[in-house]
Amino acid sequence: MKVKFLKELPEEDLQRFRQSELYRISHAGYRQCEIHLDYYREYFGPSWEDVSLIAYDDKCFAIVVYMFLGNGELSFFGAPLEVFSDPAVPVKDINYAFQELFVRIDRLKEERGARLLRFFEHPAFLLKYYEMEGFRSHIQYETAIDLTRSEEDIFMCVRKSYKSLINWGRKNLEIKVYDQSNMEDRVMEDFENFHIEVAHRRTRSHESWMLQSKAVKEGMGFVVLGYLEGKLVTATLILNGLTECYYGVCVNNRDLMAQKLPIGHYGLYLSILLAREKGLKVFRFGDVTDQADPKVNAIVKYKRGFNNELYTRVACEIDL
């Protein structure tokens, strides 16, 4: 079993990987997809080195870890990284692949100065690191919607107080949807300018917005814009991988929100239904763990209102 940096994989092996079950598993969500990785590289800058690793042989692809080194830590650009393995690969091969993977991570400590590793729980990683000094973990709460359920079931899980707010938006907002079939850069530029207007500052580069426009053009996301009396008042960007999508960016006119107008609820709910229509299987809202920051916690509460189910993940870190 060989372990190599993913960026150094020979073209022939790379093509085999793209046709493998492990590729399908690791690209179900959006983060590992190439166009979205381009966005992360633009957003976080060149100080983060791509040290993603893959373990494979002539018969199978066993493990892949999309991993980046920055500020002395191994993570997914500061967030816990995920380890993907193919459950169809024999256990003995998986175990050997992990042994080789740990050797390469040790080398990153010795040769590149890696001092901290962040990862979501994975049995092999826990077995390796759990009893080591410097191991820490915490529970992260997330919520996601099973898009294979009926539209009626999905609506039933929405917070009761949100249902009238969604219906207000349905009646009062003019909605425009942009996806692979009709996306143009000007649409994302309007989104970008609206974000700057609401935030009163630029928070990221124009190039990062254009990469997300490219993702939509390539079928890896879609945009929902809402207008009130001809003025853009709410904008939502949903990003997707092969089978799952993610609540990416949502911007709402703050003056209208201060007037208690529910301008954002329908656009987000419609995004859930659109994802279902597109054949995606899961709509993820990401981390909804209670936060100390009141502003961040308001967003957490807002996201929780679209689904009544929570699940937990264990986020771990270890001093190497």
Please provide a brief summary of the model.
The chain has 320 residues and is an alpha+beta fold. The chain has twelve helices and 15 strands.
- CATH homolog superfamily of the largest domain: Gcn5-related N-acetyltransferase (GNAT)
* Named CATH topology of the largest domain: Aminopeptidase
Helix content class: 40-55%
Q: Provide the domain count.
A: 2
Order of helices and strands: EHHHEEEEEEHEHEHHEHHEEEHHEHE
Low-confidence stretches: none
- Overall outline: globular
* Individual helix count: 12
Biggest sheet, spatial arrangement of strands = 2-5-6-8-15-9-14-13-12-11-10
Distance between the termini: 24 Å
- Rg measurement, Å: 21 Å
The SS-based structural class is alpha+beta
Count the beta strands.
15
CATH architecture of the largest domain: 3-Layer(aba) Sandwich
Mean pLDDT: 95
**CATH class category of the largest domain:** Alpha Beta
Which percent range describes the beta-strand content?
Answer: 25-35%
> Biggest β-sheet: count, sense, barrel?
11 strands, mixed
Please tell me about this protein's structure:
The protein is an alpha+beta fold and 320 residues long. The protein folds into two domains: 130 residues, Aminopeptidase (3-Layer(aba) Sandwich); 172 residues, Gcn5-related N-acetyltransferase (GNAT) (Aminopeptidase). It contains twelve helices and 15 strands. The strands form two sheets. Strands 2-5-6-8-15-9-14-13-12-11-10 form an eleven-stranded mixed beta sheet, sandwiched between helices. Strands 1-3-4-7 form a four-stranded antiparallel beta sheet. A hairpin with a 4-residue loop joins strand 3 and strand 4. The radius of gyration is 21 Å and the shape is globular.
